[in-house]
Structure formats: C-alpha cells, structure tokens
Specification:
With 220 residues, the chain is mostly beta strands. It is built from one helix and 20 strands. The protein has three domains: 9-44, no CATH class; 51-99, no CATH class; 102-219, Jelly Rolls (Sandwich), CATH 2.60.120. 3% of the residues lie in helices and 45% in strands.
Amino acid sequence: MSFSKSDDIFKLLNLTQAEITALSDKDGLYINSTTGNIEYNGSGVGGSPSGSAGGDLDGTYPNPSVKAITETSGATSLVIGDIADGEILQRVGATLVGYKPVVVCCPFGAKSDSLGKFLIANGKSSDADDSTKPKTRQPIATDGTLTKLVYKTKDGSTSTQMKIHINGVVEETIVLSSMNANDGGVETINVSVSEGDYVEIEYDASQKPGECTMYFIQEL
C-alpha cells in the first residue's frame, strides 16, 4: 500500500498495524518508525508552519504579521499603514491608513458688536444677546472632539478673537488668524465634547466679526 501527497490523508486513520509497518520509513507519504509522525519525503505533515512568511505576510512562522492586502479585482498590493484604536480604514493611493470620521455640527450666525457678543444658534441676532438665552446654545449629539472652526465674517480680521464655551465654561480662545481674502477661513481647535453638552461662541476681542456664520467640524 502506498500514498501520494495528493491522496486523502485521513485514509491513514483506518490503516491496520501491518499496513502501518509496511509504510514506515518509505519515500513519499509515510509514518516515521521512530517518532510515529506522518511525514512526506522527510518533512512533517500537519502541525504549525515554520520558516519565512511570504506574499501578503511578513516575518516568520508561526507568528507572521500582515503587511499588505492584495485586491481581488486587480493586482495592486495595498500596504497597511498606521491605524490607531477606534479609527476606520481609508485608502490613500496604495496604502490603507486609519482615520476618524468627522461631522459638520453646530451652525451659528450673528451680528456681534460691543453689546451682543454671543453668536446665535442657526440664526442672526439683534444687539445685547447674552449666554443665558437658549438661542445661543447648540447641542452636541455624540462624544468626540471639535477639531476645526469654520467661518465667514463681514467685518472680521486676522486679529478677531473668539471664545468657545462648553456648558457655559470657556474651553478655548481662538484667533481668526487664517482668514482669507473672502473674510472666511478654518481654524484648528481641540475641544473635547460629550453627548448632551452644549456649545456657544462668543466674540472676545479686537476687530468685531460683524455679521457672520460659524460652525464646527467634530471628530467622532
């Protein structure tokens, strides 16, 4: 009795002792008479692989790491970049990188002057608005971080200064230093928020923004 490598290896489970003895230490698929292991031309069959990994894997067995993912619809090998906890995947060229999804939230609009300094949630104010009125407050829907303040002003300048309040407490003061020729721009901020918080924006100092609209980019 003999077997080839392509034969059903489970047939060996039904061998008699005489058949096992006849197969011992032969070429091809056989049972090693010393170890009792099933081998093929001197190499073990089954068990954990060993040696260097290849293809989309890197390192050595038995614990290689994934270095790339090959597209099923093409020949591109996508390299895996840095992916932090909580991030989702985004393809950038031939690299898969992690990023956190963002949403646009909390639009404000107002005419800010020396009396009415707080912007109005999704609207335009009259003078003398203050932070005690619900119309100056925008609710936060989910946990995350406010990462950008986007704005368009009528009278603002690169010296215009705005305060960001969370639940009535100033968390960050930002200067509109990135204002462009269209009197708008985007400023980078870093304000942590939680579901159920409310946010307000207050004109603080220097050139007044005048009639303006502002909103936040929130990273989830």
